[in-house]
Write a structure and sequence with these properties.
6-stranded antiparallel sheet, Arc Repressor Mutant, subunit A, Jelly Rolls, 2 domains, about 45% helix, 12 helices
């Protein structure tokens, strides 16, 4: 597990705290530096969030042995490897990791570095084209669908916010799944969408997906299943399962499984000896973002998890 966090007024110290990167940044404007850093890693996936208050000529190399992608934190013009990019671009580093950019004051960025074999596996699970067809191996800026980029950026922000406040959350199974699969999956889906619309799977494939997936889910409904596990058990791609569930249930597989996991949390919020804690129950069911859990739970059941816990205690005569 990798974790590094800090605020810096000297770029050399920033570089020393950032593991795996080779930085050669030149400050182009006058004034003291204020740089923020959050870096985390689980296995072959490393995520970084950084912000600089000064203009920089950025040069260097991304972590070796990993494929790296960058996404601006907000709408800002950046010169990236000969391209003028914005907040709707996903910037792909070359296979060697070299980069050159000119960033304005106030520039914030997320980077995601992933082992190529992991990206290959995620692409296969999603039912996307092979990795070389998604990325041409050269540093470039892919103009992507704004909504898809916003969802991808929001997922990175959620992870960074939680880990910044509670580094121990990196040990949560739910957050590890988010880092090792969900974030790479959103990244590849965003890049794939930028290359054009994909044809839907055939009716037979969708029907087979349901025939295999639904019994598996029913047989494991007391466990916090992930879509990746269901895809593996049903021997179908994420795209096929997604089309099948949208067509049959009117929701995505992820929404379907989230509803089951929320129901699992609700069933456990009953008086016990010793009393349960919402955070412990949530973690057992794969929820790592308590704010998101509260919002999802309230939409699903009309009350907060803590209210369920208190109400059931009162209904059962337990004070």
């Amino acid at each position: 597990m990798l974790f590094s966090q800090g605020q810096f007024r000297d770029f050399e110290h920033f570089g020393e705290a950032t593991r795996g990167w080779d930085f050669d940044f030149r400050q182009l404007d006058r004034g003291p530096l204020e740089a923020d850093l959050l870096q985390m890693g689980v296995g072959p996936v490393v995520v970084m969030q950084a912000r600089f208050n000064r203009r920089f000529d950025q040069r260097g190399g991304a972590p070796p042995g990993l494929r790296t992608f960058a996404l601006a934190e907000e709408r800002v013009d950046v010169e990236w490897c000969g391209h003028s990019v914005s907040d709707a671009n996903v910037n792909t580093f070359s296979r060697g990791g070299e980069f050159h950019a000119v960033s304005p004051p106030g520039f914030g960025v997320h980077t995601v570095s992933v082992a190529e074999e992991v990206l290959d596996g995620v692409a296969q699970t999603l039912g996307l084209a092979a990795l070389p067809q998604l990325m041409d191996g050269a540093a470039r800026a892919a103009r992507c669908d704004g909504e898809a980029v916003d969802e991808y950026r929001a997922s990175l922000r959620r992870v960074c916010a939680v880990v910044s406040q509670r580094p121990s959350s990196l040990e949560s199974a739910g957050l590890r799944e988010e880092l090792q699969f969900e974030i790479p999956a959103r990244l590849l889906q965003t890049l794939a969408a930028s290359r054009g619309r994909l044809d839907p799977p055939g009716f037979g494939a969708r029907a087979l997906a349901l025939q295999r997936a639904v019994p598996y889910i029913e047989g494991h409904r007391h466990q916090p299943l992930t879509v990746r596990e269901v895809c593996a058990a049903a021997r179908v791609s994420w795209r096929t399962l997604d089309y099948a569930f949208r067509e049959h249930f009117g929701v995505t597989p992820k929404a379907y499984l989230t509803a089951l996991r929320l129901d699992g949390v609700r069933r456990e919020l009953v008086p016990t000896t010793p009393p349960v804690r919402v955070v412990d129950v949530a973690n057992r069911w794969g929820f790592w973002h308590m704010g998101q859990l509260a919002a999802d739970y309230r939409r699903q059941f009309g009350e907060l998890p803590s209210q369920t816990l208190r109400r059931r205690g009162t209904d059962s005569g337990v004070s």
